[in-house]
Amino acid sequence: MVSWTENDETAWAVPMMAEPGQRPVYIYAQWEIDLVRRELRSAGELVPLGGRAFEILAELVQAEGQLVTKNDLTERVWRGVFVEESALRVHIAAIRKALGPDRDMLSTTVGRGYRLLGAWRIRHMDAPLQSAATGLLPSTNIPSASFDLIGRTAAIAHLWRLLSAYRVVSLVGPGGIGKTALALEAARTPPTGLAADRLLVELASLSDPKLVCSVIARRARHQARGRGDFA
Predict the structure, then answer these.
(1) C-beta of residue 143 within 8 angstroms of C-beta of residue 184
(2) What is the band of 11 on the pLDDT scale with cuts at 50, 70, 90?
(3) E strand spans, the chain
(4) Is the dihedral of CA 33, 111, 204, 180 positive or negative?
(5) What torsion do the CA atoms of 119, 120, 124, 126 make, to the nearest 10 degrees?
(6) What average pLDDT does the segment 129-134 reach?
(7) 24 pairs with which residues across the strands?
(8) Which residue has the higher pLDDT, 177 or 78?
(9) Model confidence, pTM
(10) Residues 182-203 pLDDT 10s
(11) Which of 190, 88, 91, 186 is nearest to 138 (CA)?
């Protein structure tokens, strides 16, 4: 159930309480932004968009037409990790490319930030939450390998066995023995039949261990909402 108000330029939804088993989707003309499935769709068809770019788009649509500064975007999307402004521009360009003829919906305020224009409204869609696109791979932000990891096949298989049995698995040992490399390679090569989101959450910049849970929750919020199927 939704309600919304309109003016000459935009219409923004005021979401009512969703029924159990429903998810909110932002809709404008033929466009849909599904925050739970992490999908951008045009006329019902999936529009490919990278993970970071989708997060930027999600932040903009949730801002309800208001300006989101460059600093706010980088803090929310990269979550405390310093990035050059050029990295933000790359993803903004990817969003505009995805929007095609409607690229002007993504408006730039020079030197300040961006806003998403349009008469967006929120509709609560029924579950199930499986991807609408046939064969769509699960969401992941795991970087591509920069080198081959040799001789760790058995270790990776054992790690996935542990992950299938326990909610939390820690790799421990002296620095430099390849813990991160092993974890990333395991995330890149899930077992056959496993349809799960795999997310890398950077914690190196944190100085307060009490922030770990909140950082992970923010990074995973789109997938975790109603899904809980990521490793």
Answers:
(1) yes
(2) very low
(3) 2-6, 11-15, 22-28, 31-34, 39-42, 45-47, 68-69, 106-109, 113-116, 121-126
(4) positive
(5) 100
(6) 46
(7) 124
(8) 177
(9) 0.52
(10) 988 888 888 766 667 788 888 8
(11) 190
Six-digit token string for 4:
């919304």
Judge contact between 25 and 145, C-beta under 8 A. Answer: no
Instruction: Establish whether the linkage from the previous residue to 138 is cis, with ω within 30° of 0.
Output: no
Percent of the chain's residues with pLDDT above 70: 76
> Letter for the amino acid at 110?
V
Residue type, 204: A
Pairing of strands 106-109, 31-34: unpaired
pLDDT (mean) for 62-75: 93
Nearest to 171 by CA among 182, 161, 160: 182
Contact 59, 77 (CB under 8 A): yes
Residue whose token pair is 């980088």: 74
Burial of residue 39 (CB within 10 Å: 0-12, 13-18, 19+) is buried
